[in-house]
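All the exercises in this workshop are built on plain-text protein records. A record pairs a protein's sequence with a compact description of its fold. The structure tokens are whole numbers drawn from a learned vocabulary of backbone shapes. Once this layout is familiar, the rest of the handout is easier to follow. An example says more than a description, so a record of this kind follows.
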Amino acid sequence: MNVTFLGTGTSTGVPVVGCHCRVCTSDHPKNKRLRQSVKIEEGGRTFLIDTTPDLRLQLLRAPIPRLDFILFTHSHADHMMGLDDIRPFNFRQREPIQAYANAATARAIRRAFGYIWDDRSQIGGGKPQLEIHEVEGAFSADGIDIVPIPVLHGDWTILGFRIGKFAYITDTNGIPPSSMRLLEGVDVLALDGLRPAPPHPTHFTIGEAVEAAELIRPSQTWLIHLTHDIDHDVFDATLPEGIRLAYDGLRLELPSL
């Protein structure tokens, strides 16, 4: 199973528009972060977690032959507003793309992209063809077993996902005990680590992410959803063994399911 980080940045991306800080003006490629998403390739299937506003650019950088399905963590703009860019896969595959989300996220997608399901709406360039499945508990998508991991994002409950021994948790400031149990035995973890400080009401700081990772105990933890407060090489060197900063284009080769 191959996991490629298409973007590792927070909602603004890095560089931040109009910012002239050291990280935003850096030439270091690991300090350039598109909005947070990953692609996963397993058993001849290719799928995405989230469709960021940067999706088109991400898939030009890291092309995929087809798109089999999408997992949505939640409905904030930086995680879903690139949905219209799945249209080329509809054109080539001549079928709807399957998508999986919890009930609240599914409702938000249907509201934000209502024209997709409006038979009266005719779009010259074509509309995305999408079938959304509301999930609660473990499910199978195209033969791949997936375990949703409910986590806190402020006063929301959103989803992380576990696929085999890989788990992906973005945008969280708390993992309930029941979800910690779902993470037992995970070997590779992608985990929200927004910034060093101060504390944030909806995201882990790096220190909080490190504490959570030490409880989950994977062999590898990759911190994601990073702000421009993080200079990659400076902060990466300070992290404990087994915990590192992810970066755009990072590709992990994991055992097949």
In short: The chain is about 20% helix and 30% strand.
